[in-house]
Design brief:
The protein has three helices and three strands; from the N terminus they run ββαβαα. Helices cover 47% and strands 19% of the residues. A three-stranded mixed beta sheet has the order 1-2-3. The radius of gyration is 14 Å and the shape is flat. With 77 residues, the chain is an alpha+beta fold.
């Protein structure tokens, strides 16, 4: 994970071409996402280009996800 907001159960992933230059890296990331979503996490994926050319959009989407998660009732574990 690139960024984890544990309390809100939000993960932000930044995917660049170099990070997935091989099938093994791509498969690892896909498997991790497939474990996180059923565990109740929201997974946001951004490209490196999004992060470097549209950071305000990335920040807005992360803030939106965090705000939505913070407004949910807290589950008793």
């Amino acid at each position: 994970m690139d960024v984890l907001f544990e309390q809100e159960r939000v993960v932000a992933e930044v995917d660049g071409v170099l990070a997935h230059s091989g099938a093994e890296a791509l498969v690892r990331d896909l498997r991790r996402q497939n474990r996180l979503i059923p565990a109740g996490f929201v997974v946001l994926r951004f490209s490196w280009a999004d992060l470097t050319t549209r950071p305000e959009v990335v920040v807005a989407q992360v803030r939106d996800a965090l705000g939505r998660r913070r407004s949910l009732p807290i589950e008793n574990s």
